[in-house]
Specification:
There is one protein chain. This protein is of the alpha/beta class and about 300 residues long. It is built from 11 helices and 9 strands. It is globular.
């Protein structure tokens, strides 16, 4: 996975709030999409929260230098070009956000519609959102009330050490693209279907998550061809089979069945909210193979 060294990054799409943790208060829900924050991650995944062992104090970054997770410099000052994205983890997130939104803007325009961009907020340990207070323990999530994706970079290390994913830059890109899939669902009015209170492999909650996986795959299909801004060239210039394998591995690692088996020793499909490892991989593959948003109808 490589970005065009000379491409200019748009840091206005990413708000850097790292190091600005807030006092406690409120409860957190599991990663993915947050409506009203009223449940802990363990409840959503059917796992005893104490067994998850996820950090809520910020665990730094993975795969880069100490500067990657430091907000001293900030993405606005340090993330200027694709070359920065190829060398710094936080700048890589900026570049992925830019690339994902370049794609959706082009896709909406192709359909004669207008895409409303969403910002990503990088935070450490704890943050306030329009959906309530959340900690790093919830993982990356999207809040429809303020149309923002929230991410503690320390999650990517935990994705490897606690969830057993292979990691890699594209595993991170998959996570970001998935959260922007939720933003698209919010714009389309699909996201509300997840809040019917039901769980299980065939629930709307699972179908919403699988559709976001499919949307992430569709972006990956077009990532090296969608022009970035006014440059006329794609921001992402190289995406390998190994990258896609890392993305699929990350999708499987956060499957409900994998998480339940790992942290509670048994699988309880009736409590699924995100889908099994196989389901998540299947829908990412569907999006990546077809590049067609219309093939992502998980509700059909």
């Amino acid at each position: 996975m490589r970005f065009d060294d000379d491409a200019e990054l748009d840091t206005s799409e990413v708000q850097d709030a790292r190091g600005g943790g807030i006092p406690g208060g409120g409860l957190a829900v599991g990663g993915g999409v947050v409506g009203v924050i009223v449940l802990v991650v363990g409840v959503l995944l059917g796992v005893d929260p104490g067994k998850l062992g996820l950090s809520s104090s910020g665990s730094g970054s993975s795969g880069g230098t100490a500067a990657d997770s430091s907000s001293v410099d900030g993405v606005t000052e340090k993330c200027r070009t694709g070359q920065d994205a190829n060398t710094r983890e936080d700048c890589r997130i900026v570049a992925v956000v830019n690339s994902v939104q370049d794609f959706w803007e082009a896709e909406y325009k192709r359909r004669g519609e207008s895409y409303a961009k969403a910002r990503t907020q990088l935070f450490t340990a704890r943050t306030n959102t329009a959906c309530g207070s959340a900690t790093s323990a919830v993982g990356p999530f999207y809040c429809p009330a303020d149309q923002k994706a929230y991410l503690d970079l320390g999650f990517f290390e935990e994705l490897k050490t606690k969830f057993g994913a292979s990691g890699g830059p594209f595993a991170q890109a998959y996570v970001v693209a998935h959260e922007y899939g939720h933003h698209v669902q919010n714009l389309k009015g699909t996201l509300a279907k997840a809040h019917d209170g039901k769980q299980g492999p065939d629930s709307n909650a699972v179908k919403v998550e699988l559709q976001a996986d499919c949307y992430a795959g569709v972006w990956a299909h077009h990532a090296t061809t969608t022009p970035a801004g006014s440059s006329g060239r794609p921001l992402l210039t190289k995406l390998t089979d190994e990258d896609i394998t890392d993305g699929l591995d990350a999708a499987a690692a956060v499957g409900d069945d994998r998480i339940q088996e790992k942290f509670q020793g048994k699988v309880a499909p009736e409590s699924w909210t995100h889908g099994s490892a196989d389901q998540r991989q299947q829908w990412f593959r569907t999006g990546y193979a077809t590049g067609d948003v219309d093939r992502c109808d998980t509700f059909r």
